[in-house]
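Deviation from plan, reported transparently: FE3-S4 cluster complex.
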Amino acid sequence: MKKKIIEMPCLNEARKREVKKDIPTSVFKMDDTLSKLGEGKYYLIITHGCQANQRDSESMAGLLEAMSYKPTEEKEKADVIIINTCAVRQNAEEKVLGEIGDLKKLKKNKPDMIIGIGGCMAQEEEAVKIIMEKYHQVDVVFGTHNIANLPKLIKDATESHQRIFEVFSKLGEIVEDVPATRFVNHKAWVNIMYGCDKFCTYCIVPYTRGTERSRSMEDILNEVTDLKNKGFKEICLLGQNVNAYGKDLKTDYGFGELLDRVAKVGIERVRFVTSHPWDFDETMIKAMKDNANIMPYLHLPLQSGSDHILHKMNRRYTAEQYRNLVDLIRKELPNYAITTDIIVGFPNESDEDFNDTLKMVDYCKYDNAFTFVYSKREGTPAAVMPDSIPQSLKEERLQILNKKIGEYANMNNQKFMDQVVEVLVDGKSKKNDKTYSGYTPENKLVNFTGENVAIGDIVKVKITSCMSFSLNGYML
Ligand code: SAH
Ligand code: SF4
Ligand code: F3S
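Because the crystal trials were delayed, the predicted structure below was used instead.
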């Protein structure tokens, strides 16, 4: 098939950018000629990666439905299949390439089917070259800055029978009012900012997601008010570094003020991810203390407990500064659960460095952690750092770390034994229709028995047993 390239991703372009510049905002408008294109047809979106991708998939679904496509769970039935990809680690990418490979046969049997690849892998030069050369079943590749243009790209691919690649590396304007189909009706992700300017040396996100840009407070508050009016019980404010909210807007308020205003809209539960330790400030703590509907849960990525590695990672804080922040949070917000992200096996991480990470885990006694073995990302500064640590040692460190994380998770969960907790119900067990699950304010997963419970209810549950990663109980 011929290829029509509109724009290919370029890491060098993504690197060159002016930060803290005025970012334009535009308002989405659907072209009328596109709105019937999907009549009688079906779409399926497969989502990988973080919450930013989950939320983007909701926009993709909204756009496809605005074109009259209907959702389906069956690949065979779908006329459009979109894979929303993640590039943060090598294994995430391998999984996607395997998935695209599996679609080859399907496409052969149904040549008019459109296969689209979006998300962070679509922003990567190397990945897109591989897709272009080896995966001819892919019709459309669109970047994270090109989502609002998806209807047009699908139309072009359908009508021209050409492969369309549209990935802007630099542009990062905010598009408001893109239609969205929320995948659940009781909890919603709310973007407050896009992109990341931190440039941690191991991380691909600043290249795949572009410059940090904040949505206006007014647009965010309108969205939250609308969600509340529609009956949503929980919102989660999203950004790679929510604490940096507003820095690009040249206003005198930041995340603390936004959090306070959002909480005061009065939705039952307010959460946010992710807080970078570096931009954490007192106004955020004040907002959390003042508003009981801000959930007592904080995700505070550590990455490493060694000053030397933190410096090489460009994390902009020392182990001591991180400990001081945890002390402050424990003092001011004693009921807060704290979780983290940790990378082991960063280039040339010594035994001593790794021990510093273990010591930090002992100090912080996290409720839980996402732990990863360092994965080399082409184009990032860490990719060219010398590394003589064998992969097997890195894997061994991960096991040691996970064991410790599990012990503290268990210890923290035991505090809930015999307690009554409030659970926002997410769903019913597939195996047993009297068993439900949901989360406590501290973000603890609870499985419980009960009757006549609906998704979105907030119910009281008595806890009868506590494991490392979940609690069990019965509804009162
Ligand atoms: N913006 C968020 C993180 C987004 S990526 C933050 O800074 O908190 C989620 C996590 O993936 C990171 O916190 C980090 O622990 C991990 N990660 C990112 N790049 C990685 C890499 N190259 N190898 C292994 N883990 C990585
Ligand atoms: Fe990646 Fe660091 Fe930005 Fe998080 S803060 S997205 S780890 S560059
Ligand atoms: Fe993955 Fe992109 Fe999110 S790389 S973690 S989907 S920002």
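The pocket of FE3-S4 cluster (ligand 3) is lined by residues 49-50, 52-53, 86-88, 119-120, 204-205, 208-209 (CB under 6 Å). We consider this an acceptable substitute for the interim report.
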